[in-house]
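Ticket closed. Logging final result for Protein kinase domain-containing protein.
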Amino acid sequence: MAKWTSTDDTASVVPFVKIDSCQQLEETFQFGEKLGEGAFGSVLLALRISDGHKFAVKKMVKKKDPKTQYGKSWENEIHVLSRHRHPNIVAVDAIYESENSCYLFMELCDGGNLADELQRRTRFAEQDARCTLRQLGSALSYLHRHRVVHRDLKLHNCLLKRIPSAKTTDGSSPRFCRRRGEAAVDRKGSPATHPCPFVVKLTDFGLSIELRVSDQSLGDNVGTPAYQAPEIVKCSSYTEKCDVWSLGIIMFSLVHGSLPYSSRSESDLIDEIKDFNYGRLCSRCKTCSELSAECRAALSHLLVQSAVDRWSTSEFMDSAWVTEKSGGAREGNILAMMRDVNRTTKDK
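Final structure:
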């Protein structure tokens, strides 16, 4: 059995098995329903016959031309997921490769994705959004420390794994917000000890890239338009800060209940992204007035046109909104406050 190995001491070793055909897998696994399908492959449910353990199996057809984005996607996904482990990144148990296909046996996430959860709830209460973004921010911060840029961060690529044992302070199952503004509380009205009934698992690394050096700039236009950073839609060079913008779009969507854009065509959407200003939008948005000052401050630092002025993932994780402490990473920074004032003045 061959294994993926690396000189990087942070790398995980994932079993890598060469097979002649899919029929070999059927001797060990029983394949079931299709769980999903994306641009670079389909995901099936698989049951290991020996012990009944369930997996989500991503099957990717290998393209002959490695220069195309599709041709590189399966290599990107294998490279990242075989080298990096984090509690909030979907784990790979084994990789099987035939001449024409590649099979990633991943942990099964039984809670759907964040887009499904948002549709079910309509809108997240701040506490629920906070515990969700803490997990996602932790995964993203880990990736950026290891020079990995995801480049397709969105609600659909955040899988959820349910926590059946989650309990509130009085021992009951937690009640999570299904109506606007409803907080997670137990029967006595105390805050729930487990604000999230799920673990967030970041997935779909087909468009990801591992930078050779920490300050390397990228230039290819990839990702999902509604989550793309301004520098990408402007066809400018960009860095890992593009993921931070996408994180801001996810945060906005959770606490507001929708994306911050109203455009119906992709060309109009691109224009809207280029001209987007959170402060201006917030001034005429009723939902903004219902959010805490810390929440609005975090969004204003994530959704910044200039990548230089945009927060890093570590600054987001150290912010007052995430930590629930006053005086986060840049809220008390006078220079940052001056930049915010200047941006607001220019936009008037």
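Confidence is low (pLDDT under 50) at residues 1-11, 167-194, 328-348. No further action required.
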